[in-house]
Amino acid sequence: MSLIRDNLQAVLQRIDAAVAAAGREPGSVRLLAVSKTWPAESVAEAYAAGQSAFGENQEQEAARKIAALGHLPIEWHFIGPIQSNKTRPIAERFAWAHAIDREKVARRLSDQRPESLGPLMVCVQVNISGEASKSGVAPDEALDLARRVAELPRLRLRGLMAVPAPSDDFTEQRMQFRKLKTLYDSIRSAGVPLDTLSMGMSDDLEAAVMEGSTLVRVGTAIFGRRPAQPTPG
Ligand SMILES: *Cc1c(COP(=O)(O)O)cnc(C)c1O
What we know:
9 helices; alpha/beta; eight-stranded parallel β-sheet; binds pyridoxal-5'-phosphate; globular; 8 strands; about 40% helix
């Protein structure tokens, strides 16, 4: 009786169904399990059910879990925005960083990536819905940043990531994801090799897969609803 195991199976079935509906190659979409706010025990439970890639967005919280689960070959992804004074622990502990939106942060991650590890896999985050509150580069700045990041020796640019404004309308969800896919295609056409479109979460993964996502980041549908964040002060 494991709720996490059942939820994980259900999410994998949703992905498979969407991949089939889109006429895409089976296995062409990876699942990243977003374990932010959940304890190391929950990560271990999902790992035992076959999930090996996990996403976190708070560096200190992640460091505790990574230390507690050091005996498991987990692939850790940092999916939150990165402040330039927090790059070192991310460069040292993570396999991927999904939310690169400034050259300065990318440069520091590259400088600080230990030689003993392979390159840090990175995505450029794009603010596709244009909301002032959202992080990410503007779409018309993405090619320039992608070119600069691609030159950094200890990073490997893999693709683009976005978190569109939430919508419960499937057509609207698809339109937002299509913007990122169009940008992805144009950056590839400009000669920057990319293979990852990091888009789609618990409530919109079908729309993302229809529009070409290669990696969905799913938290709630696997681990349950996150407790409300404490309000500061
Ligand atoms: C929390 C988070 C997710 C997961 O969202 P759910 O709706 O819980 O699936 C995905 N991506 C990012 C960047 C997140 O911060």
